[in-house]
Amino acid sequence: MIAQQPDLFNSCISLYKLFGANIHFENGKLDLTTEVNLTDEHIVHLTNLFNNRRQFRSFALEIDWCEASINDIVAGRECNALKVEFELYAGNSFSFYKNEHDLFSKLSSFLIQGKKLPERYYFTDDDYRSDGDTVLPAIIKLKELMEWIKFLTAISDIDKHTNTGVTLYFFIKGEDDKYAKPLEISICNISELLKIEDISTVEDISKLISKDEHGNLHHQDRQSFFKLALVDTLKKLVANDTTEKSNTEILFTHLDKVKSAYYEHYEVFIHNFAIGEFQQQVEEKGFDYAEKVSSVLNDIQIRLYAIPIVLVSLGALSKVDNAYSYFFVISGVVITALFNYWMINDQILRLKQIEKSCSFTFDKLKNQCAEKLESKAMMSNLDDIVNNIKIRITDRNTKIKYYKALCWAPTLIALILLVVKESASIEKLFSFNLNIISQPVMDTLKILYLIVRLLLIN
Fold it and tell me: Where does the sequence pass through the membrane (predicted)?
């Protein structure tokens, strides 16, 4: 049956031409108005129509004033009536129209609501058939127009089908609006829109209605920017329009301006998005380095808990009464101090490394900001974060100096306790042979004093 459709289309056109003034066409119907004596050429095409009559919406044939059968369609007999009503979107899938305007006027509401043109059609006034080599300019323009209507319908907040087409509603707050107002666009006349000389192409705008294969996470944001551009641009165009054109005609006449406004909004969005992403990266880096700086001091403080324990252990000096005990107690205090001192020096080196890494990282971020974003606010934020980290590092360095001095406190306290507790023995020792041992002892005490002083300075 599908293979016969082109022949059926040819047969309808041929019969229309053969019957000439004896046949009338109106509103998708062929109607024979005057009796015609059938010829062999009539018979070929009329037989084809009769055999495929179920493909038409309605079909009626009378020969010699009687309802015809296939056997009645012979040359020389009189055809009294022929009525054919085409089935546009099913069955024969073609129709006749007077001209281009008639085609778009009849099908306007169907086209607006998403249906396509018939597979084939014929213009009786111009003897034009759609399956020929010539393509009408209006058909090319219609394709672009239909893509726009499909796109606008897809992104509208509400689309309402009517008897004449479709009404679209957009709910979005414009730049000068205090609250969101509905914008209504009624598309109901394809013929009028096709009179517009130049309709801008949809191009990549149509991609806003769906995610791409990789998942466009921002397509809804982009749709919002397009709707904002549409609403603001159309309001300005309507306000400045001196003609009596409808909002729809004004919109489709200036689609290029809507696109330009959208691209401006989208560029701002991309720029702001890039700044937001960069801001997040900067904040994460700033938080990371702040944590590292704080961890240096925390590590030192954890290890300095040994100092109170050492101080408690110094209570053993009150019960010590021999040289061996003094040796072990004092040795334990000194070794603890040395370990704390070395640990603090390691943390100082770690803090210096963190400072260098921080400086390198944020210098790199500053260069990126200057080259790609050119945002003064972002640069100012970067400077604030860097300054905050530097202040933290300076504060930590000051506290570390105190910790270095504090780690030697138990040693000094142990020596003081030893002198106080054993003052009598020490005096005895000095008075026993002052000339022999006084100078070595004094030299030793001087050396210990210098060592402690150097440690405190460092």
Answer: 324-344, 402-420, 432-456
* Amino acid found at 189: N
* Residue 242 dihedral angles phi and psi, to the nearest 5°: -105, -5
Last residue of a domain, one of 203, 218, 253: 253
Q: Give the H/E segment covering residue 347.
A: helix 323-368
* Residues in Cβ contact with 324 at an 8 Å cutoff, skipping those fewer than 6 apart: none
Q: How many structural domains compose the chain?
A: 3
Give the Cβ contact number of residue 148 at 10 Å. Answer: 20
Looking at every residue in the chain, the average pLDDT score rounds to 80
Residues 416 and 275 placed together within one structural domain of the fold: yes
Helices (H), 180-305: 190-194, 219-240, 247-253, 255-303
Q: What is the pLDDT of residues 103-151, one digit of tens each?
A: 999 999 999 988 888 888 999 999 999 988 888 888 888 988 999 999 8
Is pTM beyond 0.90 here?
Answer: no
Identify which of 69, 62, 117 has the alpha carbon closest to the alpha carbon of residue 84.
Answer: 62
- The residue whose two tokens read 């079909």 is 59
Backbone angles phi and psi of 245, in degrees to 5 = -70, 150
Does the residue 436 lie in any domain? no
Q: How far apart are the first and last CA of the chain?
A: 102
Specify whether the CB–CB gap between 271 and 225 falls below 8 A.
Answer: no
Residue the block writes with tokens 């099913």? 90
255 Cβ contact list (under 8 Å, min separation 6) = 148, 199, 200
